[in-house]
Amino acid sequence: MAVGDGPLAVGVDMTAAVARTVERGEEFSFTFDLGDDWTHRCVVGEQLIDPVEVLGIRPSSPLPYWGWGSIPDQYGRRWAEDDGEGPVPPRPAAPHPMLLHAWPGQGQRRALDLVALRRATVTGDPDAVLEAITGVEIDEVLQQVGAAVGSVLAQHPERVEPVLVSIHHRLTMRGGTGDRELAEDLLALLRGDTLAGRVVPVDLDAVIDLLDADPMMTAGGFLDLVTGETIPGELTDPAEVGEEYAVDVDAEPDRWLWIEPGDSRDGWQDMAAFADLQRDAGLSERLQRAHDGKGAFRRFRDTVEDEGLSDRWQNFSTDRRWGRARELLAAEGIRVDGGWTRGEPTKPVP
């Protein structure tokens, strides 16, 4: 079973994890079938009940005991107050926010601590990786979360596999730059297939450094398709660093991939997307005003800081850059080896 869209974006053991993850009165969405996308809005009861008195049984695991709709209501009710006789209420003016991936409300969402996630990934600790992503908002950082979770699949497949299924589903639904490529890689990983391309141990942050470079300062750099390391283009020019120290990329042309700085409009589009993502209409409008006109980058950064969104913006923009880097590499027939393809667990760092 896997929890659907929203902060509870991990596969869970329904016999135990629900009680550990949500408290009385809290809400979460539950997707019964990722193919048919049967999505349920679930609310944990505010008051404790005697299950024997109310239900006639003593369940051994969390149990939905009241609801409406064809699933799970056995009486065929179509809405909460459906008595079988009254008129059908008018159709809502807009879908429930849950179906728009805009639910629970902003106040209910806890941001992901990417520092903790990366630390857990480096140590190769699947428990720490899953703990870092449980009960937090991950939809804005799926590139980073997907790579992290994929790296610990071999160590604890029973626990990690449902999480990867959920992330694959989310990437497919989000459909951002690089999401299709990562979703394909995760699916291959789940199936035990090889990745579709030349697999290179790429550090995406290093590729991002080349893409984010100022084109007035550098023409670009090279990615070593053997080691996954990057070097600035200047290191290949004997006139810049001397004949003795220059890297001879012409000696092995198939080993090197040239990467130029990206389009500055990408950063502007990231700001626009982040503004559109906000559920608070006033906040969204303030961010939209901030990224319009001359000096947009500085003004937007200041506004984000004033609104207390610096960490969330950093996580969001990094994820977008990871996606662009992944898509660029895939277009060259390169897939990122996140430590998945070696067929053995990553050894924890002492």
Characterise this structure.
The protein has 350 residues and is mostly helical. The chain has three domains: 1-105, no CATH class; 110-198 and 264-350, no CATH class; 213-261. It contains 13 helices and eight strands. The protein has a three-stranded antiparallel sheet. A three-stranded antiparallel sheet has the order 6-5-7. It has a two-stranded parallel sheet with strand order 4-8. Helix 5 runs antiparallel to helix 6 (157-174). The longest helix is centred in the C-terminal third of the chain and has 22 residues, at 310-331. It is globular and about 85 Å long. The protein starts with a strand and ends in a 14-residue tail after the last strand. The model is unreliable at 1-5, 7-11 and 341-350 (pLDDT under 50).
Topology summary:
Layout: E1 2-3, H1 17-21, E2 27-31, E3 39-43, H2 51-54, H3 114-123, H4 126-133, H5 142-150, H6 157-174, H7 179-191, E4 198-200, H8 204-211, E5 221-224, E6 230-232, H9 238-241, E7 256-259, H10 265-277, H11 281-290, H12 296-306, H13 310-331, E8 334-336
Parallel strand pairs: 4-8
Antiparallel strand pairs: 1-2, 2-3, 5-6, 5-7
Helix pairs in contact: 3-4, 3-5, 5-6, 5-7, 6-7, 8-13, 10-11, 10-13, 11-12
